Amino acid sequence: MRNSPDQIIRPVAIALGGLAALFAAVELANTVTPETPSVPPVTNNPLQAELSRCRTVTPEELEIDTMCRAAWAEQRRRFLGLPGDDPEKE
Questions:
Q1: Whole-prediction pTM value?
Q2: Which residues, 6+ apart, have CB-to-CB distance to 73 below 8 Å?
Q3: What is the residue range of 66's domain?
Q4: Is residue 19 in a domain?
Q5: Considering the domain boundaries, does residue 1 fall inside one?
Q6: According to the model, what pLDDT value does residue 90 have?
Q7: pLDDT in tens, 33-90
Q8: How far is Cα of residue 56 from the mean position of the Cα atoms in its chain?
Q9: How many independent structural domains does the chain possess?
């Protein structure tokens, strides 16, 4: 009794599919890393330090906090590449 091609191809295809699924599972397990808490970088830049502080300011406090407004204006000026008030700093 001879095996037909269907009887041979079907188990081979199932085995290859299982092998591909196994490799995918192993690869997925290797790439999943535990999430680590992000620590903000320490910087000596006073503008960045002020902007970090200003992120915690409530809208009510912002109305009277001129330092935050000035820091955001300076950051916006730098981002947009606008000329500054003090040519020596640039």
A1: 0.45
A2: none
A3: 46-80
A4: yes
A5: yes
A6: 46
A7: 667 666 666 668 888 889 988 988 888 888 889 999 999 999 999 999 888 766 555 4
A8: 21
A9: 2
25 and 50 co-located in one domain:
no
Question: Per residue in 7-40, pLDDT tens?
Answer: 889 999 999 999 999 999 998 887 766 676 666 6
DSSP 56: T
3-state SS assignment for residue 36: coil
Please, what's the b/e burial string for 50-81 (b: 16 or more CB within 10 A of its CB; e: otherwise)? beeebeeeeeeeeeeeeebeebeeeeeeeeee
In the block, residue with structure tokens 């290859």: 16
User: Which pLDDT does position 74 carry in this prediction?
Assistant: 93
Whether residues 76 and 51 fall in one domain:
yes
The DSSP code for 41 is P
- Please state, as a whole number, how many other Cβ atoms lie within 10 Å of the Cβ of residue 6: 7
Does residue 39 fall inside a structural domain? no
